[in-house]
Structure to design on (1211 residues):
């Protein structure tokens, strides 16, 4: 045990200290950086990681955690937290138009109430100081009169008091312009300046210029209503994230905000016919697809394993060619296949001089998905089947053949059942993988064809995850809350299948 | 009688193999042909290439707007880093789950299994928002950085890797650990000196599969990496055919070939180990 | 034992603090205005304004661009104030989305800025009667014909093109008559040339209450020019893209935009540019005219650079100098009229000219899917049914029109 001896004592301790010093240094640096940027939750998280790491690695009693901690931190931060966030989001009205917080939305709405006057009175604007106070030197772009605008009002300037270079007012007596850097550093303050014009409107800086604005929305804090003073319409919080017209509940003030709606997204899925119809159809095809594709890949892979398990000439050559699809990045293969199936310029129609419209016929589109996925997946099943075949003890076969059984019988009655037993966990995990196989569907058919003329919103090849993706991020109208709800449902489906298969294979009892 | 059946089955076997070979090679042939096609189309109206040119390959290495070598390097760096770290960190956790008995172990394994079946892809929005926050504080590991993307990959790979490796570690006989412990070895020494060398082949395979997986990843990478010099091969190449208007298959095909060849070589030379690695997970569940 | 442990902890802490000393003061205090773009505009903007400190003195401009428009859209959808842009550039459809989501800041524009760009440009940037962006340039298509096939002068009428196709189809091995490189979007000129379209017009304004996709005139003309006696496609109209065939000289007429002219030229096609021929020599097909815009985000206020970002948007993106520079790089006609008057590039001019006969692409109406599906998907589906599957044109277009009627009605409420 000399090798062991070399690894104890001082060298190991020093290595550990150096490693921890680096980790701590990084964490401390991050802590301060985050603190200086008002990191909030992030700062707390870093502090917790720092404390936990140090306790775990300097305490003698936490041996398992010493092994687990790095993996655990990664897993929690990048998998568990996002999952939790997704579940939380599924309880919100979170969609295009309802994406920001309520205070932020309120601010935006009020800002939209600020309307320019009919003449769109515009000014050249120069920010500076008079007696130390921040003021604006404004020059009307229409009549070229200048004035000093302060928070108490507008004081006109005589043309003689104004300094003009190249037709633009650059200064006035008693007025010190801010340098660009000073102005840039005060950006937020300057952008929020409001100089009353004395007639109910005020002058608001817009970069190099300023404009005359009037607030046309009136907020009544007591009643919680916003009144549009131009049209006289009254808007009230409708409880699901928008100010709605009290007379016409469909007329909303945009933007809305993310509003809590408990289980509305879930009930929506099962009660709203517009959502429910495609959801059920897609679910059925997802199951059929995952099942069929696994069976196809497995049968071809297994058959190939049996064939190549014999003593054949060029066996190694065949084998090297046939596992190529597994080694080529699948993302590229799928895109290439997509190009090859194209109706007009695709290699498949080109070679056979046909004009088959693969992607516009629901059945052909489904077939292309299965074909391409077979291409991608059979080598994997070939590899695992062939490994499993070799793992079956030779004695079994010998015993059977001594008893006079034919090769095919041995295969059917002895090898196959054993093989299925060995490979069933892989088959199930492959089913779970294909159930969520986003790439194949999204990159090949995009979920299409969609028979939109007959009211379909989901494509013929859409599986749950691509349908969810479309719902969440697909087009101009997105519904993230609903998509999160579907994700949670997928999670339960796949989770149950996995747990069931584990229970069945008794893995959980062994661990 | 015996010979005629075996002859018949040999013919059938060969027929089956050749059908599969044609099926396998067809798209590969089309890619090769397109990569030499100067018109940038994926057309193949005849079986033999109509024109031949190195234009697409030249473009990848000379056009300043297409930093293809940088893309290759980015993919190589991020895939290698992910392969090494994810296996190294994953192996530690897997070792703990396999060899140690502690409170919450069973629950931990069960939750691990559940967590890894969540379509994490759909938690994309959450991850994006998180990395945006991180970006404002530490740009080096936030949105748009290869470092940040690596962290996300690592987090995503943990579940599967721990689960797979634990399955393999369970097959290493306990007697070896016990013998070492009797000799006075600490848990760390058992891990480093007994377990690590024994598990080396399966670790290598897991690393290789992680490498290929990362090389392949597109959705996250296209969303997170904005700077043209930070793109991975997959994202960079996709921009040739995913453009708003018009597709240019030529450089895509050429680039795909260049990127895929090293992978294929590694894969073919290590295929023996890979089969072992793939089935290790199966035999023990 | 405790002492030893304490020693280790303090050593680690000391080392940590030492490293921190080097690591923390890395942040510069520069005020950065971040501009987002897609893969088309991004490289051009990078050359023009990345690192610029003179457009908005006191700020530095940084351009970030994505690998595709999809990636840009996807990142923008998910963005928050933490990492979002201060200025966004892209198609006009961003205006309605951003106005609804509250991520874009409604612009209070100067009288001079407003005057420099045509009203149709501003209309494309508005949502609920508020303007959310500055129109940058015009995204539209022109009609292109192969001079070696058809001859040096443009076809006068739609019928001329159809006749040419029917006569030469077999002799020249044509793969189609007219094709839209950009699919349903680009094919709008053919639709309108034959009397179809999206919505009706009342004077100079759009009338969203009336869908004209299934107008009897269009159905009659489509039957006459595009379908054979049994209602199947004659192969003349290739609506779903055929760039390769046109570049191979196997299709005489096409509709596409400036971004493809270089590719056509490098495929050694001798081409002419113009407007899509109509039923008579004096009528022309109208293509979609879309504006791209520069948008000010509400994040810019959170980042404390709104004033600077406004200078960039109004002082550069909306200005004649800025638009001229961008047009020279992109070959797209500028929106600013003063900049447009200085354009000399013939293909940019031709597209600009074609744009004048086009129809404003009102994104909120075309993207709306109150009827179940947006304009593009609905029309694509209808085209597939008619020209690929050979289904009855009247029934198909009626079904499509029913969907569009709902979309337009829904969108009109918010325009």
């Amino acid at each position: 045990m000399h090798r062991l001896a070399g690894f104890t004592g001082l060298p190991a301790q020093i290595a550990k200290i150096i490693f921890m010093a680096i980790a701590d240094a990084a964490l401390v640096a991050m802590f301060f950086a985050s603190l200086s940027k008002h990191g909030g939750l992030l700062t707390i998280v870093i502090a917790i990681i720092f404390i936990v790491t140090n306790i775990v690695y300097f305490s003698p009693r936490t041996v398992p955690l010493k092994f687990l901690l790095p993996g655990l931190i990664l897993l929690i931060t990048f998998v568990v937290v996002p999952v939790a966030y997704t579940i939380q989001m599924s309880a919100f009205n979170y969609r295009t138009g309802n994406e920001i917080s309520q205070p932020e939305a309120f601010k935006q709405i009020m800002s939209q109430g600020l309307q320019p006057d009919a003449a769109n009175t515009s000014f050249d604007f120069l920010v500076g100081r008079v007696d130390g106070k921040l003021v604006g030197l404004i020059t009307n772009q229409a009549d070229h009169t200048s004035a000093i605008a302060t928070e108490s009002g507008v004081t006109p300037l005589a043309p003689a008091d104004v300094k003009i270079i190249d037709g633009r007012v650059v200064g006035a007596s008693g007025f010190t312009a801010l340098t660009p850097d000073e102005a840039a550093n005060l950006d937020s303050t300057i952008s929020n300046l409001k100089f009353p014009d004395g007639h109910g409107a005020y002058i608001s800086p817009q970069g190099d210029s300023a404009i005359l604005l009037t607030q046309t929305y009136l907020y009544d804090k007591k009643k919680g209503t916003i009144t549009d003073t131009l049209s006289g319409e009254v808007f009230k919080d409708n409880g699901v994230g928008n100010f709605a017209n009290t007379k016409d509940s469909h007329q909303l003030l945009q933007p809305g905000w993310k509003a809590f709606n408990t289980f509305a997204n879930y009930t929506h899925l099962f009660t709203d016919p517009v959502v429910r119809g495609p959801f059920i159809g897609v679910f059925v095809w997802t199951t059929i697809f995952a099942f069929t594709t696994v069976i196809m890949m497995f049968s071809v892979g297994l058959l190939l394993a049996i064939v190549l398990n014999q003593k054949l000439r060029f066996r190694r050559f065949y084998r090297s060619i046939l596992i190529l699809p597994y080694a080529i990045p699948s993302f590229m293969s799928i895109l290439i296949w997509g190009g090859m199936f194209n109706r007009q310029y695709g290699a498949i129609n080109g070679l056979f001089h046909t004009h088959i419209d693969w992607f516009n016929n629901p059945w052909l589109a489904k077939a292309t998905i299965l074909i391409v996925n077979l291409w991608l997946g059979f080598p994997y099943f070939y590899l695992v089947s062939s490994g499993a075949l070799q793992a079956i003890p030779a004695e079994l076969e010998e015993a059977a053949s001594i008893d006079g059984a034919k090769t095919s019988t041995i295969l059917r009655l002895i090898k196959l059942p054993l093989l299925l037993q060995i490979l069933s966990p892989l088959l199930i995990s492959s089913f779970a993988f294909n159930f969520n196989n986003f790439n194949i569907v999204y990159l090949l058919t995009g979920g299409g064809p969609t028979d939109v003329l007959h009211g379909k919103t989901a494509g013929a090849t859409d599986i749950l995850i691509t349908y969810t993706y479309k719902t969440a991020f697909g087009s101009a109208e997105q519904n993230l809350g609903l998509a999160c709800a579907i994700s949670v449902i997928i999670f339960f489906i796949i989770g149950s299948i996995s747990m069931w298969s584990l229970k069945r294979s008794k893995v959980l009892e062994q661990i | 009688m015996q010979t005629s059946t075996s002859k018949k089955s040999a013919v059938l076997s060969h027929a089956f193999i050749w059908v599969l070979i044609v099926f396998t090679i067809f798209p590969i042939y089309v890619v090769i042909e397109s990569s030499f096609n100067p018109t940038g189309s994926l057309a193949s109206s005849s079986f033999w290439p109509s024109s031949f040119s190195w234009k697409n390959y030249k473009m990848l290495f000379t056009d300043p707007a297409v930093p293809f070598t940088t893309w290759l390097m980015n993919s190589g760096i991020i895939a290698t880093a992910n392969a090494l770290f994810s296996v190294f960190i994953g192996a530690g956790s897997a070792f703990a789950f396999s060899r140690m008995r502690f409170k919450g172990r069973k629950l931990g394994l069960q939750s691990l299994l559940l967590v890894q079946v969540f379509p994490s892809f759909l938690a994309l929005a959450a991850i994006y928002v998180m990395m945006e926050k991180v970006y404002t504080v530490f740009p080096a590991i936030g949105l748009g950085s290869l470092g940040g993307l690596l962290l996300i990959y690592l987090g995503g790979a943990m579940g599967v890797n721990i689960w797979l490796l634990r399955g393999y570690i369970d097959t290493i006989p306990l007697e070896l650990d016990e013998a070492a412990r009797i000799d006075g070895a600490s848990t760390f020494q058992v891990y480093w000196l007994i377990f690590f060398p024994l598990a080396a082949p399966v670790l290598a395979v897991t690393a290789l599969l992680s490498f290929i997986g990362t090389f392949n990843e597109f959705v996250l990478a296209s969303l997170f990496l904005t700077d043209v010099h930070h793109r991975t091969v997959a994202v960079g190449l996709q921009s040739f055919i995913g453009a708003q208007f018009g597709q240019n298959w030529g450089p895509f095909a050429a680039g795909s070939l260049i990127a895929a060849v090293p992978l294929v070589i590694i894969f073919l030379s290590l295929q023996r180990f890979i089969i072992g690695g793939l089935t290790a997970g199966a035999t023990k569940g | 034992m405790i002492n030893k442990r304490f020693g280790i902890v303090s050593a680690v802490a000391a080392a940590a603090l030492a490293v921190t000393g080097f690591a923390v003061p890395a942040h510069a205090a520069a005020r950065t205005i971040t501009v987002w773009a897609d893969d088309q505009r991004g490289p051009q903007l990078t050359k023009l304004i990345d690192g610029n400190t003179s457009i908005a003195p006191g700020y530095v401009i940084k351009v970030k661009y994505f690998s595709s428009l999809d990636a840009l859209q996807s990142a923008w959808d998910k963005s928050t104030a933490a990492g979002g842009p201060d200025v966004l550039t892209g198609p006009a459809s961003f205006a309605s989305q951003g106005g609804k989501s509250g991520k874009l800041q409604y612009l209070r524009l100067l009288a001079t800025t407003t005057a420099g760009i045509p009203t149709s440009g501003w209309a494309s940037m508005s949502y609920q009667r508020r303007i959310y962006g500055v129109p940058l340039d015009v995204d539209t298509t022109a009609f292109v014909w192969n001079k070696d096939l058809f001859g040096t002068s443009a076809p006068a009428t739609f019928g001329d093109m159809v006749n040419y196709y029917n006569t030469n189809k077999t002799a020249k091995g044509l793969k189609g008559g007219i094709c839209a490189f950009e699919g349903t979007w680009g094919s709008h000129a053919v639709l309108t040339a034959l009397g179809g379209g999206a919505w009706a017009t009342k004077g100079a304004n759009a009338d969203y209450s009336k869908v004209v996709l299934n107008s009897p005139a269009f159905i009659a003309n489509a039957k006459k020019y595009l379908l054979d006696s049994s209602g199947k496609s004659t192969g003349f109209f290739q609506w779903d893209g055929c760039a390769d065939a046109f570049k191979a000289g196997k299709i005489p007429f096409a509709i596409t935009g400036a971004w493809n002219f270089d590719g056509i030229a490098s495929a050694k096609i001798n081409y002419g540019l113009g407007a899509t021929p109509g039923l008579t020599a004096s009528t022309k097909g109208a293509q979609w005219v879309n504006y791209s815009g520069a948008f000010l985000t509400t994040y810019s206020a959170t980042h404390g650079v709104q004033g600077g970002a406004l200078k960039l948007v109004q002082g550069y993106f909306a200005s004649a100098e800025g638009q001229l520079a961008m047009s020279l790089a992109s070959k797209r006609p500028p929106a600013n009229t003063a900049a447009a008057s200085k354009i000399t590039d013939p293909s940019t001019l031709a597209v600009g000219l074609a744009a004048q006969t086009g129809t404003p692409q009102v994104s909120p109406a075309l993207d709306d899917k109150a009827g179940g599906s947006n304009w593009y998907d609905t029309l694509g589906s209808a085209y597939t049914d008619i020209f690929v599957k050979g289904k009855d044109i009247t029934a198909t277009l009626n079904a499509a029109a029913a969907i569009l009627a709902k979309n337009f009605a829904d969108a009109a409420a918010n325009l």
Q: What stands out?
A: Residues 216 and 231 of chain A are 9 Å apart (CA to CA).
